[in-house]
């Protein structure tokens, strides 16, 4: 597993030396969010393995709407609503898949139709290994890949500085809470669909939080979130919690409520 992570980190460095976001096959001739710019303007060195340093700074490249692949097939995707316009800052949701899952899992909801009315841009990266690195020993390759992906989005799109959220499902939800609380100076909101744990290395800022869990979850007992929520509230975080009838899943109704909660102004 250690070699796999090392190989994954090497692949990230390769991606930084080429354009890592390309339009889908329908727009194969267009290129988006060039990593060439990342070479000319590299991200600052992070102070530690869990800190994200990418920040919105105004779009510098022509935007492309619809589904956009991150780097090579399987690295994840970006979805930009067709009504996006550069003259208005858009909200962004960085959404993380569950353990053993893939970004494409979110397409089956379908999230795009839920994001369109709110003008919500979705960034759904793939973990560098079978699940997120925190479950494999600690923050590392996944944080750097996420940082690079965020930097690409910030170059291509006008993202509202106070409208950036981090969310996830299952292990992705646990990762979102842990990484998000530590980077609360970047994320104004966190969304956790059926999380199993919450282990931040520290805390910055005070993002608001939406959490949900199914009453009949066979994988992550529905007592995990009820234990996490009081802890978050005791630490001062404003939490909206939804317990729904169901298993280890993300119902469309819950996803819709979360997006409405997230984009309410």
- What radius of gyration results from the CA coordinates? 17 Å
For this structure, the CATH topology is Rossmann fold
Structural class: alpha/beta
Tell me the major beta sheet. Answer: 10 strands, mixed
CATH class: Alpha Beta
* Proportion of residues in helical segments: 25-40%
Number of strands: 10
Query: Taking strands numbered 1, 2, ... along the chain, how are they ordered across the largest sheet?
Result: 2-1-3-4-6-5-7-8-9-10
Instruction: Count every helix, treating DSSP H or I runs of 4 or more residues as helices.
Output: 7
Key terms:
265 residues, alpha/beta, Rossmann fold, 10-stranded mixed beta sheet, 7 helices, 10 strands
Description:
There is one protein chain. The protein has 265 residues and is α/β, with parallel strands linked by helices. The protein has a single domain, classed as Rossmann fold (3-Layer(aba) Sandwich), CATH 3.40.50.1820. It is 29% helix and 21% strand. It contains seven helices and ten strands. The protein has helices spanning 2-15, 35-40, 111-115, 141-156, 171-182, 224-234, 252-263, and strands at residues 21-23, 31-32, 66-70, 76-80, 90-96, 121-125, 159-169, 189-193, 208-214, 239-244. It has a ten-stranded mixed sheet with strand order 2-1-3-4-6-5-7-8-9-10, with helices on both faces. α5 (171-182) links the parallel β7 (159-169) and β8 (189-193). α1 runs parallel beside α4 (141-156). The N and C termini lie far apart (44 Å).
